[in-house]
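Need tokens for this chain, all 187 residues.
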Amino acid sequence: MDQRLYEGMSLREVTEFLFLEDTPQPADLILVFGGKHNERAEKAAELYHQGLAPRVLIVGGDARATQVPEAEALRQHCVALGVPDEAIWTETRSVRTLEHVLAATRIIAERLGWDRVRRILCVSAPAHMRRVKQVLTRHIPEGVEVLCCPDRREDVNRDNWWTTEKGRREVLRELEKVRTYALQGEL
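Here are the structure tokens for all 187 residues:
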């Protein structure tokens, strides 16, 4: 793995670069990026129950681990947490961040219309938030605000990622993905 992107970066600099988190504010939509962690559904349900957005869009079709697309598994968990099924839209074909964003922007355009969207709350893994925000911002109309609302994973987060091999691997992998997306012009 090429370490040029993060060579010489301190732990604090890596943390501040990747682990973006905004104060949630009222929005038009909660956008959840697929993943195998139920914490994403828990964060989406928390934001929904706080009345911060009337709709949840969950994107992600990876079904390799469970034979159930990530978006469907997360939808089921959101419903179990009290989010009304009719408040949830899902997309179950995309498998990587850029595909998630392209699918989400198409669904938003078709079902809501971009003229009715001013702010989106994005939910994903804490270390994934930089890439989520940059890719999404590139593909949505100017003026739509993107707020990062990372899930509450305890195993890898901004306060502990460097303390375990798993955390260090996940962060180095994410730095490499940011670098790759940038080199491919996807950021």
